[in-house]
Amino acid sequence: MKKVKFICFVLAVLLIAGLAIGCQDSSDYSATGPWRLTMASGWVTGVYYPISGAMSRIAYNNMENISLSVESSGASVANAKLIGSKDADLAILQNDIAYYAYNGEIMFEEDGPVSNMVGLFMLHPEPIQIVVAKDSGIKTPADLKGKRVAVGPLGSGTEANTSQIVEIYGLNPDFSDFAAVERISAGEAADFLKDGRIDAAFFTTGIGAAAIADLALVKDVNLVAIDDKHAADLAEKYPFYSTVQVPGDVYRGISSLQTVTVLAMIVGRADLPEAAMYEFVKAIYENLDIIHGAHAMGQTVTLESALVGMPIKLHPGAEKYFKEVGRL
């Protein structure tokens, strides 16, 4: 009996130790590593997940002291909160959401700013793509009045983008003009469109995202354009927006058109060691071919665009690298 009790005691100690290691705060890491980091990405059917997966491969093959595990998540707003709660070390966000989080504005006004978040580098354009059933009669965002619309998960960047766009087109930003509002993920929105349960869905994701591409293979859908006037009005009120062209050869049966875009970016916790973030950023930009091969949108990630649209303060490790290569 004593032997059994001793074994149970040892197992309990090991379990507690394992939990402590699994929950280790990265601020406890030494200045020289090794560093085991976690990155919050996004939906598996989006662009964040394959791009972050490429970064994990770069870490495995090229970063001496860094291992990077990638977690699927609810994307921008959720990822900012994971940084704030220290449940993630790194995350991919939209740059507009990063700004709102850092400054405690819009959807972060109630909870306050995510003050421990800093920028690392910019990624790719993140167009807002409004997908509608071809037989829905929806030609502009104004036509969404009285329709069943998926606006993105509750509190997401997509939901914020949807609200801002329909407001510019004269609809209520609280979605009260819609016949039904679905706050669901990108994959669920694609399924709802396919089954005819909704008329339209907003996707804030890279061009060529699997959720839209796969949907277009099995259902006749269109994208809704944002015209020059409304795009200019949107950018005047919310300066993170710019226009972008969706090529006509990306989705089956959908012609080229103009929409608006924000930018994706990598953020991190301010308490991550400078040496770790310097090594991380350096390895990413010395191995961009891996990013370029992960997804079509990865090809837009360049050293020249690394700081274009950066809305928040840089991490000292990232600042050190960009000064070294002449970008600051």
Short description:
With 328 residues, this protein is an alpha/beta fold. Helix content is 37%, strand content 20%.
Please tell me about this protein's structure:
The chain is α/β, with parallel strands linked by helices and 328 residues long. The protein folds into two domains: 35-124 and 264-324, D-Maltodextrin-Binding Protein, domain 2 (3-Layer(aba) Sandwich), CATH 3.40.190; 127-263, 3-Layer(aba) Sandwich (D-Maltodextrin-Binding Protein, domain 2). It contains eleven helices and ten strands. Helix 2 runs antiparallel to helix 10 and helix 9 (274-285) crosses helix 11. The model is unreliable at 1-24 (pLDDT under 50).
Q: Secondary-structure blueprint of this entry?
A:
Elements (H helix, E strand, L loop, with lengths): L1 H21 L12 E6 L7 H15 L3 E6 L4 H9 L5 E5 H9 L13 E17 L14 E3 L6 H12 L11 E3 L3 H9 L5 E5 L5 H9 L2 E4 L3 H10 L4 E5 L10 E13 L4 H12 L2 H7 L21 H9 L4
Key attributes of the depicted protein:
alpha/beta, 328 residues, 11 helices, D-Maltodextrin-Binding Protein, domain 2
What name does the CATH topology of the largest domain carry?
D-Maltodextrin-Binding Protein, domain 2
The total of beta strands comes to 10
Proportion of residues in β-strands? 15-25%
Mean pLDDT: 89
Q: Please give the domain count.
A: 2
Tell me the name of the CATH homologous superfamily of the largest domain.
Periplasmic binding protein-like II
Molecular shape: globular
